[in-house]
Design goal:
heterodimer; A: 236 residues; mainly alpha; MetI-like fold; 9 helices; globular; B: 213 residues; 8 helices; 85% helix
Chain lengths: 236, 213
């Protein structure tokens, strides 16, 4: 028991880094996905094509490959500029995750009738004011469950940052294994920590999905299509 | 340079092997989970629900470490490629089970009743009436999951399986050919996964219009 307590004390340090990594990534991913999805429904074709290209390209490259490439390609230059592997991981995770979330947001935006854009324009609202005053307030609530699902994916995927030497919880556990030679027990504790961290978020997401009627009835079928996977996929 | 290219391509074959193996594991285990859930025995249901929640919450990398290092420490040593196939396949099965379950729901309940009235058992109805009809509906999501597995197969590099990213990493630190390695790996992934993803999207659209007609 005291052994478990000492392990948990060590892992707690890594868990805080995991939470920080996921929080920054989530914040940047929400902003970047919103911009991407607005580009994707833009009236201006080049912007639409650029957004589609970004989403297609980034969704075909594995997250781990992106992380490794950032680390090997930019690691040394960035270290010189004082940017740590932590921020490289935030950047890679954000760039990857946004390609998936932007597609989901695009679907939500498309659910708003075109006539609302026209009505706003006829009232003399510019693009930015239309988005801020008319469009975003309506997509905020339905966007919450998919954003929470993204957060779950980000927490899981942040474990890959251990492979570019970010001292988050998986790397902390691996170091602990090299000291205790107890991989089974240590990694089971690690799995339990992820479960405890993610479970409340998944329950909240599921409850909200039911509340807003997403994922029930007809939503069920679109959910599978629009919401590729929690991980990158897996996404990864 | 050509040595690096050849090495990466050999790694690509290993990646393909891992992804295909994991896909089979996921497709079979996912179906088993979905069938068990459909039969609705209480203890199985609880076990299955907790398994699904766990598999969806624990990173694939941690599952891989458990199978490779964890089992290794208790005397069950499996090679890195097999560990990756099992870990990725099992993790993916939690999602595959959902696809089958959604597929089962496309078959009207009256067909099951008709099956029962012909004297088929619950299992008989499921395997002979329901499952065959859901196949067209599960093909696109299963293909999607194959594309996903092609990407997550790179995780095998973490346990030293000689797949494409592992070899790329070695080449980058050995020869410094970073641009070459990045270009080839990204290029291969785009060339292989983009058409597949497109094809799946087309299939889904056709299936949807077919289902609504």
């Amino acid at each position: 028991m005291s052994q478990l307590a000492s392990w948990l004390a060590i892992l707690a340090g890594g868990l805080i880094v995991t939470i920080k990594l996921s929080a920054f990534t989530t914040l940047f991913t929400i902003v970047w996905s919103t911009l991407l999805s607005l580009c994707a429904i833009s009236q201006w074709r080049p912007l639409r094509v650029a957004a589609a290209l970004y989403n297609d390209l980034l969704r075909s490259i594995p997250l781990l490959a992106l992380l490794i490439f950032f680390y090997y390609g930019l690691g040394r230059i960035m270290a010189g500029l004082g940017v740590s592997a932590f921020w490289l991981a935030v950047a890679a995770l954000t760039i990857n995750e946004s390609a998936y979330l932007a597609e989901v947001y695009r679907g939500t935006l498309l659910a708003i009738p075109q006539t609302q854009w026209e009505a706003a324009a006829s009232l003399g609202l510019g693009w930015a004011s239309t988005v801020r005053l008319v469009i975003l307030p309506q997509v905020l609530a339905p966007g919450v469950p998919s954003t929470l699902n993204m957060l779950i994916g980000v927490i899981k995927n942040s474990s890959l940052a251990s492979l570019i030497a970010v001292n988050e919880v998986t790397l902390t556990a691996t170091i602990l294994v090299s000291q205790t030679f107890e991989p089974m027990q240590v990694y089971l504790v690690l799995a339990a920590l992820y479960l405890i961290l993610i479970l409340p978020i998944s329950l909240l997401a599921r409850w909200l999905e039911r509340r807003f009627g997403i994922g029930a009835g007809m939503g069920e079928e679109t959910q599978g299509a629009a919401e590729p996977r929690l991980a990158p996929q897996a996404g990864a | 340079m050509s040595a690096t290219v050849a090495d990466l391509l050999r790694g690509g074959v290993v990646t393909l092997k891992i992804a295909s193996g994991a896909w089979v594991v996921s497709a079979v285990l996912g179906l088993a989970l979905a069938v068990l859930q459909d039969l609705g025995l209480a203890p199985v249901k609880i076990f299955q629900a907790s398994l699904t929640i766990t598999l969806r919450s624990v990173p694939q990398l941690v599952i891989l470490y458990l199978l490779y290092f964890g089992l290794g420490a208790v005397g069950i040593q499996i090679n890195s490629i097999l560990a990756a196939i099992l870990a990725l396949g099992v993790a993916d099965a939690a999602f595959t089970a959902e696809y089958y379950r959604a597929g089962f729901m496309t078959v009207p309940w009256t067909q099951r009743e008709a099956g029962f009235s012909l004297g088929l058992s619950r299992m008989g109805v499921l395997m002979r009436v329901v499952v065959p009809q859901t196949i067209p509906f599960v093909v696109p999501p299963l293909l999607n999951s194959f594309v996903g597995l092609l990407k997550t197969a790179t995780l095998a590099a973490a346990v030293g399986a000689p797949e494409i990213l592992y070899r790329g990493q070695n080449a980058m630190s050995r020869t410094g050919e970073i641009v070459l390695v990045v270009t080839i790996i990204m290029g291969l992934y785009v060339v292989v996964t983009m058409p597949l993803t497109r094809a799946v999207a087309v299939m889904e659209r056709r299936l949807r219009s077919y289902a609504h007609s």
